[in-house]
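FAQ

Q: What does a record look like?
A: Structure on top, sequence underneath. For example:
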């Protein structure tokens, strides 16, 4: 599975110099958001991009990355053929990068999740399927073929629907369960509230529900969904229910407290995602990267620590890996690529992200992400 992703830049240079052909989309992934604004409808942009409240947590995510600086080391005999591949919870991947679970992807492009899973499969990057998707488990599994995929659960109050989701995901080849904890209620999102826009209320993003035998047959499917989505009463004592109905690894997503990380380990979880949902849930919250080092130190030897929130570049991935993440989930840049050029746009984003990760790793003196550690960085 080993690939030299950094070679992608030479392909770009050769196309430019020999054919006069330049990339359709910018290779500066931090600039994609401004381009996506032009491609998305105001409602879609308002749902995809802005965060909860004043956007304070989203800003804190980026500020946390800026507080760390990579310290390049010289003359370390970096291999010309670098190996970025790794395995997480039995899933082999070409690099420690995954496509984060993102709902309602048809807001960005008509092909939505189908384009994203195909692009991820092309690059050897595992795809995580959202409960709030615009395409069902089965549709995504067919589009993704044999590629690695995980399933993200929004735990509904209807336990029959929950069990059905778990069984359908397993039958469709999703190998790891990712339970999102930080969205038991929708966050306060002014960009959506000011437009009165919530796509689920017209049925968009409910494909998994609407195709489920335990959900069908009700008079008002939208009301039925609304009544089962909010589930703030969940506790740590509910986790055994998942073990009863899912026989693979379980990961808890939305952890930013070291104490919660310890509780996850104490309750036999296999992994966690250090995440604040990209700032979409709690305004004024802790930057996710600020939480990562203490969590990795507390439980890194007991379960797999993954990370998301605020990742925009390959250098960001290096920082998160150095601070203790085993792999990094990437969200919004994927949606921006999808909005701008469908599957090709997602592939462009992934190739650039992995290429920059590879080049940054090599220029910093490392042949593999496994060689990174806190000593690879310096706090500002």
């Amino acid at each position: 599975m080993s690939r030299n992703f950094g070679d992608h830049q030479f392909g770009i240079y050769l196309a430019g110099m020999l054919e006069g052909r330049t990339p359709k989309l910018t290779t500066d992934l931090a600039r994609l958001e401004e381009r996506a604004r032009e491609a998305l409808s105001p409602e879609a942009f308002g749902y995809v991009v802005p965060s909860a409240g004043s956007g304070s947590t989203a800003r804190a995510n980026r500020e946390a990355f800026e507080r760390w600086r990579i310290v390049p080391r010289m003359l370390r005999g970096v291999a010309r053929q670098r190996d970025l591949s790794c395995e997480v919870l039995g899933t082999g991947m070409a690099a420690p990068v995954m496509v984060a679970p993102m709902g309602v992807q048809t807001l960005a492009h008509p092909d939505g999740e189908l384009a994203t899973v195909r692009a991820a499969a092309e690059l050897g990057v595992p795809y995580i399927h959202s409960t709030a998707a615009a395409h069902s488990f089965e549709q995504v599994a067919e589009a993704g073929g044999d590629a690695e995929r995980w399933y993200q659960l929004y735990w509904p109050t209807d336990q029959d629907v929950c069990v059905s989701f778990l069984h359908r995901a397993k039958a469709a080849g999703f190998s790891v369960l990712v339970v999102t904890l930080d969205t038991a209620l929708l966050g306060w999102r002014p960009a959506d509230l000011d437009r009165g826009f919530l796509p689920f209320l017209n049925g968009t993003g409910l494909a998994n529900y609407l195709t489920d035998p335990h959900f069908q047959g009700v008079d008002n499917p939208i009301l039925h969904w609304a009544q089962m989505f909010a589930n703030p009463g969940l506790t740590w004592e509910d986790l055994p229910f998942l073990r009863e109905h899912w026989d693979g690894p379980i990961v808890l997503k939305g952890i930013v407290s070291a104490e919660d990380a310890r509780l996850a380990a104490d309750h036999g979880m296999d992994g966690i995602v250090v995440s604040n949902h990209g700032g979409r849930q709690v305004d004024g919250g802790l930057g996710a990267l600020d939480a990562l080092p203490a969590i990795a130190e507390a439980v890194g030897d007991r379960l797999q620590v993954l990370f998301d929130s605020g990742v925009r570049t390959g250098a960001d991935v290096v920082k998160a890996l150095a601070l203790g993440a085993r792999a990094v989930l990437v969200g919004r840049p994927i949606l921006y690529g999808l909005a701008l050029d469908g599957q090709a746009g997602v592939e462009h984003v992934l190739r650039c992200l992995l290429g920059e990760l590879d080049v940054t790793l090599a220029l910093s003196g490392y042949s593999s992400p496994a060689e990174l550690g806190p000593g690879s960085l310096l706090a500002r």
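Q: Is there anything notable about this one?
A: The two ends are 36 Å apart (CA to CA).
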